[in-house]
């Protein structure tokens, strides 16, 4: 064991730390400063190994052969030269033992890529070809279908326009705008994402039109690469890399190259496009030459420094390429994109994330995880595990997302970060990859619990309903936030193409990749892990069966998750075998449920339910039409914001099972729960039959007979406003609930109602006397009858129902709309102004809806994922009664 920086290290661990550049200058032996390791290039810093080697060997940067600095230990002498100098006080025997250990370690490292069967211990992924989502039976299925429609909308000539321009080819069509515009330095990145997304979407759906489109795209890019004739392929000139290597301003060229290489690789992996593989190999050769040139002409430090610019997941895609080619050059190049200073801090398990650009660094972690899978080096498992734990414990929100204005903030100090620019969508996409890898390695429930949380609330929230090509960059979490009101707002299908558009189309193309996993245990039996509850079917080829999972839509007033799992034989399976070999299921019992009320049966026989956070294991020889039923209670709960300061302990989010609930609010967030002992004491579900009580009222404009106006709550005063776009606050404010009166002494009149605004449960429309505006009372009124109105059927239009709203306390006086769009109570001669067409409410309650009792007003709570442009509040100031 070596002791260094106050830590004990084995030879293997010390070597790993050296390789990631943890060790600092040999002159002072201090670790690399985290603040020198950023996403903004800084002055050259004393990163290992260059300066450390020079101190050990007395060399200088101009004369030292840098060939060994990038981990390509082709000669044992070069490897032995890396052995740190031995202190003169050690014995010859100890010196000999250390040299022997170092030589043996070389022999181990020299077999790079041999992970000694470590992957056999991981859970295995099912191909997207084998998992099918029903587009009509789940939020995931609908999101996938919406994304497919968008992918089919995009034009290949427009996508590759800048690639052709750069290659000197003809440029038919018109280039897209946004970040794919011909003048934008990052152009081409979305094309890489598009290749990945279409490959995964085709594997998921086998849509033939999509297959033709992506084949055409790869062919077009191949023509560009062939014309350039160097292996280089991009939508921008190679001179961008001259600036990158000179540490001059340029917008993340390697970020774009990563996307292009990953897209081509996915076209090979999912579609078996051999040409795409040849293209990405050519690109790898080109960039290997560039990196080697930087190191040989300058120093490896210059290369490390350049990694402070965002490079995407270059290490990740190169490790993936190595698993296919087994070319050690690809492994070496992957190592060279492992950002040493960042990984070194995590290796010491130091949370120095604050101030780092989030989406620059999560992909580096994903690459480090791939390095562990390939080499078996345990340090990279430690790095990935610690990183996930640090983000989850100190830097994440109730959505599962992380970042504010694209950066990490101080750990457990998130109160100030609740803004419109909270949570970049790209970061959630990448965190899902980190958690997925960790679950495959460990089978620990926490990682799939996180995956469900982040996918449900952080990913499914970024589409604007079923509108193809409408996505957001940021998912705002501030008070009174709206997805439409961040800096970027909603993107457009053909003129945005932000980074989060690229990760968005990938996310919605691979929604089937983390529902099921397979393992083979020590006795050779196969096991199936079901870790996400999504209506889907799995073709389990190893057993020759189809596993069909049907999940009943969740409803707040029936708080149970109902899952039905049915087994079928594959058509091509032998008809002589009616059962499969013995195998087992491991079904996730999530942390958010409870044992009381939970139930599981297999063919009507009860199964024992384990505690939440464990797996329900069922062994069986599966037969056609075997059926497993699972019933899990969903509970309301509150979660504190990750902020350890005492003054912020009351800031909390409200969740229902995996769903983060948002209150329909433009900024109100005060909830006083008094002496309530349970969340259910101050939050109640909204039954679905209340949708039948929701109405909207319209009138023809007096000024413009072709304009239709709608009755609206505008800042607690009624007005007539123009019609609205669905999914906005205007829809909510134009929807009211008619509640049959219990105030009137006239028991026989069933047409007397209280009018309640949709988003203000318990509030009522009240009049203030003849000729005065009508207002909304959120705290009741001394004259209860002022909130009571009678519905008078005018029977004038056979195509729609026309009514008048008569005050019960002032008979003959009606709610009237006027030319200036004001709404008042008027009597007698104003009958024409009192006629309203009444319709089913413009808005309905979500099936998962609740009413939370607030301090000054009540809140309608709905899943964040269901909202579009509506204003909402995710975190509430929830306080108890003062003592």
TrEMBL record:
UniProt entry keywords in alphabetical sequence: Signal
Residues spanning the signal sequence: 1-34
InterPro entries listed in its UniProt record: 6-hairpin_glycosidase_sf, Beta-AFase-like_GH127_cat, Beta-AFase-like_GH127_middle
Transmembrane segment boundaries: none
SUPFAM superfamilies, alphabetized: Six-hairpin glycosidases
UniProt entry tagged with the keyword Signal: yes
Any one Gene Ontology BP term: carbohydrate metabolic process
Domain of life, per lineage: Eukaryota
Domain Non-reducing end beta-L-arabinofuranosidase-like GH127 middle: 528-634
Record-linked Pfam families: Beta-AFase-like_GH127_cat, Glyco_hydro127M
Domain Non-reducing end beta-L-arabinofuranosidase-like GH127 catalytic: residue ranges: 138-513
Protein name (database record): Acetyl-CoA carboxylase, biotin carboxylase subunit
């Amino acid at each position: 064991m070596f002791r260094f920086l106050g830590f004990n290290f084995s030879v293997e661990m010390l070597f790993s730390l050296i390789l990631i550049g943890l060790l600092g200058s040999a002159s002072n032996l201090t670790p690399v400063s985290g603040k020198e390791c950023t996403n903004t290039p800084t002055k050259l810093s004393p990163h290992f190994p260059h300066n450390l080697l020079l101190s050990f060997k007395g060399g200088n940067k101009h004369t030292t052969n840098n060939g060994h600095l990038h981990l390509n230990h082709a000669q044992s002498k070069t490897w032995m030269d890396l052995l740190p100098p031995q202190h003169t006080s050690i014995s010859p025997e100890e010196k000999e033992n250390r040299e022997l250990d170092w030589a043996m370690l070389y022999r181990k490292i020299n077999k790079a890529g041999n992970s000694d069967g470590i992957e056999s211990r991981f859970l295995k992924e099912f191909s997207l070809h084998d998992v099918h989502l029903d587009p009509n039976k789940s939020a995931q299925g609908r999101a996938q279908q919406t994304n497919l429609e968008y992918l089919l909308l995009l034009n290949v000539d427009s996508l590759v326009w800048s690639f052709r321009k750069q290659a000197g080819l003809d440029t038919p069509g018109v280039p897209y705008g946004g970040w794919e515009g011909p003048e934008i330095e990052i152009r081409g990145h979305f094309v890489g994402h598009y290749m990945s997304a279409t490959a995964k979407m085709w594997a998921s759906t086998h849509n033939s039109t999509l297959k033709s489109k992506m084949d055409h795209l790869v062919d077009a890019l191949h023509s560009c690469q062939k014309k350039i004739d160097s292996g280089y392929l991009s939508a921008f000139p190679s001179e961008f890399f001259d600036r990158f290597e000179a540490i001059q301003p340029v917008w993340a060229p390697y970020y774009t190259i990563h996307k292009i290489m990953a897209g081509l690789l996915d076209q090979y992996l999912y579609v078996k496009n051999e040409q795409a593989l040849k293209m990405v190999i050519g690109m790898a050769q080109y960039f290997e030459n560039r990196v080697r040139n930087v190191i040989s002409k300058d120093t490896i430090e210059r290369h490390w420094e350049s990694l402070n610019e965002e490079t995407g997941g270059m290490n990740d895609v190169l490790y993936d390429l190595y698993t296919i080619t087994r070319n050690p050059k690809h492994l070496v190049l992957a190592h060279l994109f492992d950002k040493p200073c960042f990984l070194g801090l995590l290796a010491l398990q130091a949370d120095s994330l604050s101030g780092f650009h989030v989406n620059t660094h999560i992909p580096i972690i994903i690459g480090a995880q791939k390095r562990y899978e390939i080499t078996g080096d345990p340090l990279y498992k430690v790095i990935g595990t610690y990183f996930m734990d640090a983000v989850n414990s100190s830097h994440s929100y109730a959505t599962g997302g992380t970042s504010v204005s694209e950066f990490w903030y101080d750990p457990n100090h998130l109160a100030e970060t609740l803004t419109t620019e909270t949570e970049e969508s790209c970061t959630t996409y990448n965190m899902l990859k980190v958690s997925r890898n960790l679950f495959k390695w460990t089978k620990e429930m926490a990682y799939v619990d996180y995956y469900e949380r982040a996918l449900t609330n952080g990913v499914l929230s970024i589409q604007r309903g079923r509108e193809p090509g409408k996505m957001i960059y940021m998912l705002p979490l501030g008070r009174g936030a709206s997805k439409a009101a961040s800096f970027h707002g909603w993107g457009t299908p053909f003129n945005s193409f932000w980074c989060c558009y690229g990760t968005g189309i990938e996310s919605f193309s691979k929604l089937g990749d983390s529902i099921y996993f397979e393992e083979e245990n020590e006795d050779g039996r196969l096991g199936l892990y079901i870790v996400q509850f999504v209506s889907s079917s799995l073709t389990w080829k190893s057993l020759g069966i189809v596993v069909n999972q049907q999940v009943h839509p969740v409803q707040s007033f029936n708080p149970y998750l109902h899952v039905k799992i049915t087994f079928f034989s594959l058509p091509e399976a032998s008809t002589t075998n009616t059962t499969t070999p013995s195998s087992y299921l491991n079904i996730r019992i999530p942390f958010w449920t409870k044992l009381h009320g939970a139930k599981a049966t297999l063919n009507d026989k009860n199964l024992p339910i384990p505690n939440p956070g464990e797996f329900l294991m069922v062994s069986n020889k599966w037969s056609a039409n075997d059926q497993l039923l699972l019933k899990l209670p969903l509970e309301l709960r509150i979660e504190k914001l990750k902020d350890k300061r005492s003054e912020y302990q009351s800031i909390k989010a409200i969740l229902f099972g995996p769903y983060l609930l948002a209150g329909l609010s433009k900024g109100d967030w005060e909830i006083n729960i008094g002496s309530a002992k349970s969340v259910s004491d101050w939050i109640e579900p909204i039954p679905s039959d209340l949708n039948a009580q929701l109405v909207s009222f319209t009138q023809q404009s007096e000024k413009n007979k072709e304009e239709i106006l709608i009755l609206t709550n505008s800042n607690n005063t009624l007005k007539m406003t123009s019609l609205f776009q669905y999914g906005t606050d205007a829809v909510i404010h134009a929807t009211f609930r008619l509640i049959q009166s219990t105030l009137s002494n006239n028991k026989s009149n069933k047409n007397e109602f209280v009018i309640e605004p949709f988003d203000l449960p318990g509030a009522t429309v009240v009049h203030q006397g003849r000729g005065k505006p009508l207002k909304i009372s959120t705290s009741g009124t001394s004259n209860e009858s002022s909130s009571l109105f009678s519905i008078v059927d005018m029977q004038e239009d056979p195509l729609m129902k026309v009514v008048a709203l008569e005050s019960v306390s002032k008979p003959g006086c009606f709610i009237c709309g006027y030319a200036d769009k004001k709404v008042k109570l008027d009597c007698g001669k104003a009958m024409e102004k009192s006629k309203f067409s009444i319709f089913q409410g413009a808005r309905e309650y979500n099936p998962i809806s609740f009413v939370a009792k607030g301090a000054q007003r009540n809140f309608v709570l709905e899943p964040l994922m269901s909202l579009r442009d509506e204003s909402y509040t995710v975190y509430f100031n929830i306080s108890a009664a003062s003592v």
